[in-house]
Amino acid sequence: MRRELFDIPEGVIYLDGNSLGAPPKHVAERMQEVVKHQWGTRLIRSWSEGWWEAPQRVGDRVGRLIGAAPGQVVVGDSTSVNVYKALMGAVKGTERTEIVCDESTFPTDGYIAQSVASLTGLKIRAAHPSSLDLTEDTAVVLLNQVDYRTGALHDMKALTEQAHAVGAQVVWDLCHSAGVLPIELDALQVDFAIGCTYKFLNGGPGSPAFIYVPKHRQATFENPLSGWNGHREPFGMKPSYEPDAGIARARVGTPDILSMLALDAALDVWDDVDLAELRQRGLALTALFREHVEKLTNLEVITPDQRGNQISVRCPDARNVMDELIARGVIGDHRPPDVLRFGFAPLYVTDEDAIKAAETLAEITR
Amino acid sequence: MRRELFDIPEGVIYLDGNSLGAPPKHVAERMQEVVKHQWGTRLIRSWSEGWWEAPQRVGDRVGRLIGAAPGQVVVGDSTSVNVYKALMGAVKGTERTEIVCDESTFPTDGYIAQSVASLTGLKIRAAHPSSLDLTEDTAVVLLNQVDYRTGALHDMKALTEQAHAVGAQVVWDLCHSAGVLPIELDALQVDFAIGCTYKFLNGGPGSPAFIYVPKHRQATFENPLSGWNGHREPFGMKPSYEPDAGIARARVGTPDILSMLALDAALDVWDDVDLAELRQRGLALTALFREHVEKLTNLEVITPDQRGNQISVRCPDARNVMDELIARGVIGDHRPPDVLRFGFAPLYVTDEDAIKAAETLAEITR
User: Fold this and answer.
1) Are B262 and B304 contained in the same domain?
2) Cβ of B231 and A35 within 8 Å?
3) What sort of enzyme, by top EC class, is this (chains A, B) (predicted)?
């Protein structure tokens, strides 16, 4: 849809945008401007010329892509750190006794949930989104909208309602869904959401993650990482922490400006993207790849119909097969023990890429 | 000492390296290489071509500047997040009842300490480094080596011994001392240290902070932010968190590679710097500025003789005076209510800068 805006090396079919998005062409130039002019020439003055507010400003840009009205998303820290903020915020003061964690989610969410459980005395229970068995003991459910291994898409509306029906809160991890399909956090009354920006949003390696705290939860949201950037008067140098009234209370320390402004630049390519159209292209690309894989190989596609922008294929010797694919210019990745993952970012992946990738996979595994 | 390596704009005397260091000239070019080649051409492959290990590799480079042998420093996250890790690690399992926090430290340290106290049930007590009154109730003391307002340098050796004498641990904040003077964390048996890299280390705006966990504490250090980057087998995708055996357990989520590699580039200018010589130049520059301020103005210098690379001057109407200084090309900053701060980074500040800055201050306040 926007391939001309991206730098994709000659001869490469890049199907790993679900792990690290490709760089929009203009990001390199923007980085020069940031390093040479903003940092080099303006020096400390740049903090009052746009840097300080960048986490909220870029947060609002992400917000538009996930159905969050302005003032509810802030960018900064890593996904893991934001999972921690969201879960600690969700269980604060609860008398409920369990945290339910999506057993199919990317492991870091579970690791952080274990730490939160251990610190707060709650129990942790792993469950699949298809059988959460929530009760009035459940304080919060941590769910991933798209399964990082299989590419399965979970039903955000139904699962959010399921949590709310027993009075539990829900934290959605959008790492594999932001930039994939229309998401309606506000409309679905999601309690918290977090996600990374370096996959389908193309923010760059390790670009800062985001957290969504809806307006009506902000006044009671306690950030366990009560750093000075979240203070209501950060330059007041007050001895006591008093959180900002709004989303800035989810900030912690000084934001990593170079990574943040690379993301800011990368988000330009989304400015006039219609997410419904994007979603159709993503479904078409993954369907096309799936069809060719099933026609040309004996491999099992483990991605269900309800899916994100990813097709996962069970394949013996997955690691070596992926090495060979990469050697032939088809870049995906693998997850142990036997899964090949192929991500389809509609902004820069074409139908020809999808067909050629399936053909190459067939050649290697035949 | 290395001014030719830095980009300082024509006509600017830059005395705010204690807040945001100036960029070494080659950082812009390195960023191009990182964005265009590492991210753009190598794409996901760069994760196994140096990115994954960057937090430890760059950590070792910082370690050399703070007296830490390799394998004990990791770079990532913000200072506030690292204060949290260090304090939570220090109080884990303690039966002692109080956290003592340097009342003169930069506020974020105290804010985070308050959160740690509140989560763990310990009490927090603010005290000045000159009268800590530690007891066998003290679990940990959080101290800043250089006072961000006055520039006062505290005695790391004496204060560390004072803490250890009652069986307390000590966490040192090196934000205003790393890159200022020789620091001997290993030799002084410091328990934990953290610090930022964007002040005297010139890592760039919001460049990632660091944490020092000495070898002998690593096996028992529990990182409350148990993200997948700290796992002993991060790509094993195991359901349970098992920390890395070494310093990598202090890692959390995916590191912000652009900011990290800008810092990496910036550290090149330190490669052959003799820290004892640097210290002498810092003392000479601050003495020269102080002497001229005291000779030419009626303003009170509040920085004591035991100092970092900073001279602080009490000045009525500090905010407007600093605005006028900046308008005349002398860039420092102010801290409420009435303190002007001038930082002297010996790598790029000259004697002429120090004299001219004092003269300009005198012109404005006479």
Assistant:
1) no
2) no
3) hydrolase
